UniProtKB/TrEMBL annotation:
Boundaries of every Acyl-CoA dehydrogenase C-terminal domain copy: 245-380
Species of the source: Arthrobacter bussei
Record's keyword annotation contains rRNA-binding: no
UniProt keyword annotation of Transferase present: no
PANTHER family in UniProt: ACYL-COA DEHYDROGENASE, ISOVALERYL-COA DEHYDROGENASE, MITOCHONDRIAL-RELATED
Record key words, sorted: Monooxygenase, Oxidoreductase
Gene Ontology biological-process entries: L-leucine catabolic process
Any one Gene Ontology molecular-function term assigned to this protein's record: 3-methylbutanoyl-CoA dehydrogenase activity
Name of the protein: Monooxygenase
Length: 413
């Protein structure tokens, strides 16, 4: 027998070693996902177990105590996690975005934050304001604290995904002393910070989204960061997490429909086989859902590679090339969003074509896959992204990398 002694280590092999650490946790998370959705139980213990295993430090370099995962590896893991429970990667979306921002930053605070991530501290997200705020305005304000060298923050944010689980909150605000828009990183463990789990969407119900309120909460001076220094591929990064959520949701739906078909004992007289598991028409439906999951995972992989190139571009000392890579990442994630929004909602609906009336039982809760996909797809309307992609294809227009939501300005403003 020939013994192979010189096997080249591959990226897939490295990924499998990394994923093996977390897959037992993913399996346990999957076991309770349907029940948590049905009972609206926040996955506090599940997120804590992941963080205690080092999941929050995936991107932290090995030299700093983390795993040194590449962005393609991170998004493959997020997709696997989303197949178990798509609420959890979305709840960690703000955390991984802030980790990314600290990775490309410089100065002493970079080391401080990387150490916090390794120690198991997490960051939530708190950017969006609802109500009468006009596009371009920021109601949440950061003011100098007369009693210290720090600041005080006051305001209310909605869609503050993951903040209810977090130690810190990445908050978009505006300074009152100079008008500069900033990221205020607020400690969640203080008076003056409250959270409400009042997100009322029909899907992604346990992401911990809802209202965060800041009432003269303290912010250290070093944690008030000019927004213009934020990592340039942030919008593409945020979108890519939602892509992983969609891809994982299809994979989770495939797993559940395959189990239902495999274990079903009743058949129809006008079917094609003595069991559902052998009926070629039923198998075709499951196969099409499986193919959709495959396409979705491949799409996420390609978008993640573009993000990796954008990350590496931040260290090239070549502004033109850095800009080009960031534009490519924005376009790649936009294209992926356009296709996955429809692919995920269709595939998670098509699973019911392989089932009978019992498939819509509320006890089975299979509709959660469609509800989750539809909800994740509604973040950042894909129609605008399709237009942006088309404008680039036809006219070479540069995609916008920063955008906001709010009321239309008054006429003439």
């Amino acid at each position: 027998m020939t013994t192979i002694t010189n096997i080249t280590r591959t990226a897939d092999a490295d990924y499998e070693l990394l994923a093996a650490r977390f897959r037992p946790l993913f399996a346990r998370i999957a076991e309770g996902a349907s029940r948590r959705d049905r009972e609206h139980e926040l996955p506090r213990n599940e997120i804590r177990a992941l963080i205690d295993a080092g999941f929050g430090a995936l991107r932290v370099p090995v030299a700093d105590g983390g795993f040194g995962a590449s962005l393609p590896q991170l998004f493959r893991l997020l997709t696997e996690l989303a197949a178990a429970d798509p609420n959890i990667p979305q709840a960690l979306r703000g955390h991984f975005a802030f980790v990314e921002d600290r990775l490309v930053s410089s100065g002493p605070q970079r080391e401080t934050w990387l150490g916090r991530f390794v120690d198991g501290e997490t960051v939530g997200n708190s950017w969006t304001e609802v109500g009468g705020v006009t596009i371009g305005d920021v109601i949440t304000k950061v003011s100098p604290d007369p009693d210290s060298r720090g600041f005080l923050i006051s305001g209310t944010k909605y869609y503050s995904t993951g903040s209810i689980f977090a130690d810190w909150i990445d908050t978009f605000a505006q300074r009152t002393d100079n008008g500069v828009k900033v990221i205020a990183v607020v400690s969640a463990h203080q008076s003056g910070v409250t959270h409400a789990d009042d997100w009322d969407g029909f899907g992604q119900q346990t992401t911990g989204s809802g209202t965060s309120t800041f009432d003269a909460a303290r912010v250290d001076a070093e944690n008030v960061i000019d927004f213009d220094t934020r990592f340039a591929y942030q919008t593409a990064f945020y979108q890519a997490v939602l892509l992983a959520v969609l891809a994982g949701t299809i994979k989770g739906a495939e797993h559940d429909v395959a189990r239902e078909v495999r274990t079903r004992t009743r058949i129809f007289s006008h079917g094609n086989a003595p069991s559902f598991a052998a009926d070629p028409q039923i198998l075709q439906v499951v196969g099409e859902v499986s193919a959709a999951a495959y396409a979705a995972e491949a799409t996420v992989e390609r978008a993640a590679r573009a993000l990796q190139h954008a990350y590496e571009g931040a260290f090239l000392d070549d502004e033109a090339e850095d800009e080009r890579r960031n534009d490519v990442a924005e376009l790649e994630t936009a294209k992926a969003q356009v296709i996955l929004s429809s692919l995920a909602t269709r595939a998670t609906s098509d699973v019911f074509g392989a089932l009978a009336a019992s498939g819509v039982s509320t006890a089975k809760n299979l509709d959660r896959h469609w509800r989750n996909a539809r909800t994740a797809a509604n973040h950042n309307p894909w129609v605008f992204k399709a237009r942006i992609v088309g404008d680039h294809s036809v006219n070479g227009a540069v995609p916008p990398r920063i955008w906001s939501i709010g009321s239309a300005p008054a006429p003439g403003a």
